[in-house]
Amino acid sequence: MAKIHAYLNFNGNCEEAFKFYEKAFKTPNIGTHRFGDLPADPNFPIADEDKNKVMHTALMINENTMLMGSDALENFGHKIVSGNNTYIMLDTETAEEAKELYTALTENATNIEMELSEQFWAELYASFQDQFGISWMIHFEGNKKMH
């Protein structure tokens, strides 16, 4: 069975975002490669302003879930367009975990679509965009389990 991991692209602030996620999920980064670490290639020169940007980074939310990310380089034709077509859904095991993650991830959030509250399908549910424009859902099914 394949595992699903979330891969996030940023416009130059990947490192800042992942420091925030390390704090929110209370887990260390497992490594970062920068564009300046790539072997020199005359066909794809890395501009000096891009060398310190993140080519790939990751952290383990738990043993089955990884959050990965990178900066998109406009010099390579990559352009970040924010939208609401993708959310990362955090399915929590307890109400306390849902509340803790909601508090941590909504710090300076750009948009709270639904505050963490009871819904007919979940004991606790929230949806929002964090301060980096990433869309999240937090879900605790609790006493609303479907039969």
Q: What can you see in these coordinates?
A:
With 147 residues, this protein is α/β, with parallel strands linked by helices. 16% of the residues lie in helices and 37% in strands. It contains two helices and eight strands, in the order E-H-E-E-E-E-H-E-E-E. The protein has a four-stranded mixed beta sheet, covered by helices on one side. Strands 5-8-7-6 form a four-stranded mixed beta sheet, covered by helices on one side. It is elongated, with a radius of gyration of 17 Å. The two termini are 24 Å apart. 22% of the residues are buried. The mean pLDDT is 92.
Helical/strand content category: alpha/beta
Strand content: 35-45%
Low-confidence stretches: none
What is the string of SSEs from the N terminus onward? Answer: EHEEEEHEEE
Radius of gyration: 17 Å
Keywords:
single chain; 147 residues; alpha/beta; 4-stranded mixed sheet; 2 helices; 16% helix
